[in-house]
Amino acid sequence: MLEIKNVWKTFNAGTVNEKVALRDVSLTLKDGDFVTVIGGNGAGKSTLMNTVAGVYPVDRGTIIIDGVDVTRLPEHKRAPYIGRVFQDPMMGTAATMQIEENLALAARRGQGRGLKPGITKVERELYRTLLASLGLGLEDRMTSKVGLLSGGQRQALTLLMATLKKPKLLLLDEHTAALDPKTAAKVLETTEDIVQRDKLTTLMITHNMRDAIAHGNRLIMMYEGRIAIDVSGEEKKSLTVEGLLEMFSKVSGSDEADDKLLLS
C-alpha cells in the first residue's frame, strides 16, 4: 500500500544550517499494516510523514501509494489517498462549524459541489451512529460548534473525519501528544478500533515507547534520518521498553541516545 524507496531530504542545503533529515530511507507497508514510528527529536519521524503527505518534496527517491507514483504530486493531489490527524487538535476541524457540518465536509472530500441540500436525513443518522461509537456523547451535540469541544473530543472527531472515506493510508502524527494521559488513552483506543474495523494501512508517530509497543503489528525506530530498528510479529509482541532501549543502544553505539529518546 505504501512504498518509500531510497528517499533523501535535506533542509537548508549548502548553508551553515544544513540538516540531512532523511538518509536513503526505504520502507514498505503492506495493505492493512499498522506501523508505529518512534525516535528522538530530530530523528526524521515527522519529516518522513510530511514527505509521504506531500508537505515536503523529496530531494531523491520515490513514494508510491497503492501502486500510484505520488513523488511529484503536490499535497492537495495526494489528499484523495490519505487521511491525516495532526498533533494539534485544532488543525483537523473547522471550529466555527457544527459537528455534523464538519463530518459532511469530510464525507464530500474529493467530490464536486452542487446545490443539493447540505445534510440529508440518512447522512445525519449515519453521523449519529459514528459519533456514538466514540463514547463521548457527541451524538447528542451534533449541532454544537466544534470550537466548544475539548481537545480530546476534537481529536476524536478529527480521527472520525480522517477515516470517514476509508483512505488508502492513514497518517497519525503524534495525535495524542497534546492530550492528558486519560484522554490520550481513550483516543488511542478509538484509533485501534477504527483501524482494525476498516483494516486501514496506518503509519503512527508516537513519542511514547509503551504506546508504540502496545499498538500495531510493526514498530520502526528512526535515528539520524535512518530506520535503525524494524520489528514485527512475535518479536514485537514480546518487546519491552527495556528491550527496545537495549536494541537502540546497540544500533546507535551510545547510551546517550537512550537518554535523548526517553527525554523526547
Structure write-up:
The chain has helices spanning about 45-55, 75-80, 100-105, 120-130, 150-165, 180-200, 210-215, 235, 240-250, 255-264; strands at about 1-10, 20-30, 35-40, 60-65, 70, 80-85, 170-175, 200-205, 220-225, 225-230. It has about 260 residues and is α/β, with parallel strands linked by helices. It has a single domain (about 1-95, about 150-264), classed as Rossmann fold (3-Layer(aba) Sandwich), CATH 3.40.50. Strand 7, helix 6 and strand 8 form a beta-alpha-beta unit. About 40% of the residues are buried.
Describe how the helices and strands are arranged.
Elements: E1 2-11, E2 19-29, E3 34-39, H1 45-53, E4 60-65, E5 68-69, H2 75-78, E6 82-85, H3 99-107, H4 121-132, H5 151-163, E7 169-173, H6 181-198, E8 202-205, H7 209-214, E9 218-223, E10 226-232, H8 233-237, H9 241-252, H10 256-263
Parallel strand pairs: 3-8, 3-9, 6-7, 7-8
Antiparallel strand pairs: 1-2, 1-4, 4-5, 9-10
Helix pairs in contact: 3-5, 5-6
Give the helix/strand class: alpha/beta
Radius of gyration: 19 Å
Low-pLDDT windows of residues = none
Known CATH architecture: 3-Layer(aba) Sandwich
Tell me the strand percentage band. Answer: 15-25%
Mass-distribution shape: globular
CATH superfamily: P-loop containing nucleotide triphosphate hydrolases
What's the mean pLDDT score?
88
CATH level-3 fold name: Rossmann fold
Strand/helix succession: EEEHEEHEHHHEHEHEEHHH
| Spatial strand order of the main sheet | 6-7-8-3-9-10
Count of DSSP strands: 10
Count of helical regions: 10
Helix residue percentage: 25-40%
The major pleated sheet works out as: 6 strands, mixed
Terminal CA distance: 30 Å
Number of domains: 1
CATH classification class: Alpha Beta
